[in-house]
Specification:
Helix content: 10-25%
Largest sheet: 5 strands, antiparallel
CATH topology: Thiol Ester Dehydrase, Chain A
Number of strands: 5
CATH class: Alpha Beta
Oligomer: single chain
Order of helices and strands: EHHEEEEH
Strand order of the largest sheet: 1-3-4-5-2
CATH superfamily: Hotdog Thioesterase
CATH architecture: Roll
Distance between the termini: 14 Å
Shape: elongated
Number of helices: 3
Strand content: 25-35%
Structural class: alpha+beta
Length: about 130
């Protein structure tokens, strides 16, 4: 599982001092972007090639709170790819700890320049985790 780091800033927390629930989706996005970058291309480059990957479904399961100044590790892997969709799975922990704070997934459709479904570029389809391929 690829891991990206994110430090919780004050603006990410709610009145109770914990990470506001919707911010986990931002952390997922950060991890996706870093995973693509680690495979040699950025999301911007993919868009320049005429493709986009809008989120069509998102899930989060909140297990324990993250707080201001926590250094989080956002694990991401790609367990499933079809001709036109890509699924990412996430796991959030604090650096140096094994307790899972949040798990989730997002499903993305691949769209071409016309905004219609398009076949995933080969380099994106190759992101599938070898353990689940």
């Amino acid at each position: 599982m690829f891991q990206a780091q994110v430090r919780v800033i004050y603006g990410d927390t709610d009145q109770m001092g914990v990470v506001y629930y919707a911010n986990y989706l931002r952390y997922f996005e950060l991890a996706r972007s870093e995973l693509l970058r680690a495979h040699g291309k950025s999301y911007r480059e993919m868009e320049a090639e005429g493709f986009s990957l809008p989120v069509v479904e998102a899930t989060c399961r909140y297990l324990a709170p993250a707080r201001y100044e926590d250094l989080l590790l956002v694990g991401v892997e790609v367990p499933a790819v079809t001709r036109v969709t890509l699924t990412f799975r996430y796991q959030v922990t604090r650096e140096g700890e094994s307790e899972v704070l949040c798990t989730g997934s997002t499903i993305h459709a691949c769209l071409g320049k016309s905004g219609r479904p398009a076949r995933l570029p080969d380099w994106v389809a190759a992101l599938v985790s070898p353990s689940t391929a």
